[in-house]
Specification:
Length: about 500
Amino acid sequence: MSDRDNSKEELLAELESLRQEVAKLKSAEAAFKAQSELLENLVEMARSSAEKHLLTGILKKTLEVATRLTDAERGSLFLLDRDGAVTASILTRKDTTAEESTQLIGAVLDKGLAGWTIRNRQVGLIGDTRLDDRWFEFPNQPYKVGSALAVPILRGEALLGILTLLDSEVGHFTSEQALQMLLTAEQIALALENAQLYAKLDESYSSLEKTKLALQNELEKGRLLQRDFLPDRLIQPPGWEIAACFYPAREVAGDFYDAFTLPGDYVGLVIADVCDKGVGAALFMALFRSLMRLFSGQIRLEESDVLKKEPSISADDAIAPHKADYSAEIDALKAVSLTNNYIAKTHWQMSMFATMFFGVLNPATGLLTYVNGGHELPIIIGSSGVKHRLKPTGPAVGIMPNAKFKTQQVQLEPGDILLTYTDGVPEAHNPEGKFFTEQRLLTLAQEPTNSANALLDTIEKSLRDHIADTVQFDDITMLALRWAKNSS
């Protein structure tokens, strides 16, 4: 062979190599464009309102891109799980029932080109379906298939699916198109994997949203139930005004207040703050409230011998000592000790307790007999400002069994206001983290007023101005009592 012939063969080989390189570059470029289109479409669908149809949408888009790249007339696409079972599909025949679709998929996976591609994990190219036993012809097939191309969609070693393209012309699909679709299949795998992840995330998000909604519904039920434990309307004994303010920090609260009549025309006043927050505190709030009502009305307010059993009664210059005439009120106040023992002995493992002020008022005389179980100091306000602070007479309720709770009495006068509150008032935060403070509360209490409601409104407005747009940290509860006039 002459040098001229050698040169010619080398030139032809070089041209063929260049042609193949160009074909690869074109295929790679087409694959890149396909990837960009699929991923852009994926992102767009992920942002749309039809997130639950995301996977179906990307399957349709994938098939649309593949048929356009190869100029195929139709195609199908199967997604597979790790066991090779079909999890989603887009079929060539659109007018089939679910049962027929299952039969068609089973046939092509068992006898057809798609099944061969799954088993061999390589491109299946059929130039003439009449001459290739890998082609399975369905009975009464409504369209003609002359050539077919099946491409495995691989992500590493994992087979994600099978893409099959069909055309009525024999020899429609070329080896260059087979290479192009093989490269494109890698990008399709990436898009499908992302679509599956999006679908799983969407499913998880939907599940979380459902769980969140269920929890919110339960909390709302708890809030409504707890609201029923608080007085719907406060009793208003003749000549007296009782007002309250209650703003929970969450859906349910640990604070509570109560005002109720007792045998003998006495009035019970309770304000309490259960330790901790949330559902647990709310459950114990309901328990404390029920026990106080039960135990305070359980004993008849007659002929009590409480003074004989508990002779140790402290007094100071501002507060009158107990008298036998008022032993009925002291009987009602035994509810604090009974509640304390029940909580401390029955629910000791929960370590739940409450600070509590419980007063029993004789509306006819204005005498208030009370127990302060570790609670914020109630304020008695007269015409000239703050007159007394009612100091604790025992520990918080529920900490230890058989704790001692001493009773005290104070004589209210016409025009006096009793202001009780929980620690959420002085400890309310502003945006800078500073407390509202007890001193500020006392300053407001010094301002002249002739109404318990008006006093609470003034304090509440000042609190709201202080808190501003800060998230409320703790429950805010106040209960006020005013002797409007002598009711005797």
